[in-house]
Design goal:
Helices cover 31% and strands 28% of the residues. With 250 residues, the chain is an alpha/beta fold. α3 crosses α5.
Amino acid sequence: MQVRFEDLGRIRYKDAWDYQEKLLAENLAVKKHNRQLEIDAEKSGITPSSLPPEGVGAEKQETKSHFLICEHEPVFTLGKSGAMENLLVNNKILKEKGIEFFKTNRGGDITFHGHEQIVGYPILDLELLKPDIVLYMRNLEEVIIRTLKEYGLDCGRSEGETGVWLDPDNVFKARKICALGVKTSRWITIHGFALNVNTDLDFFKMIIPCGIENKQVTTLEQELGRKVPLAEVQEKIKKHFQEVFEVELV
């Protein structure tokens, strides 16, 4: 399956969110159209499998999958299951620091997006891959795990918690390097992951990251003791994304 790749560069969170919603709406319109064709075909006694493919008489259409990568201006985002208590500063401080805040429709709790962090937004039709949201989340984690392995980091998953962690089984050393939060509508995904590359960790002191107390957050820079070019990491993510999801980025 071909997936359209797009690097949005450094972009405000709301602009990227609006763009995702636009792509989602286009795909939902395709699904609605195809479903109506099936309903009409059933009424006419035609089996759905015999419907014409895309391009034949403006009949059946195909959804389009995308993989967006970007960097955000500083922003805290709160998932639909998150608690406002996990934001530890008030609006005055947010304004002084130039940090935006949004309640979003993704899963998960509160997190930070900012400079020197790679944010990935796959807009995938899981019906063309495998309609399994748990598998999808594990595959997103696997993309990051494989990427970080190239830097010699042995990362993994923390039982009962999403994201990618170092030393997840050690309560005193466990630290998260990549957060996940997604939403699906009729098996179309939006939102995604945020990988801390050279991110300023001071921002995370203003929240309880992902609503998880007493666990640390880390960056690739902190683990390696050096800054890492975002473009370099991005290329590794793209490679492993294609491998894990068995797709072609175009």
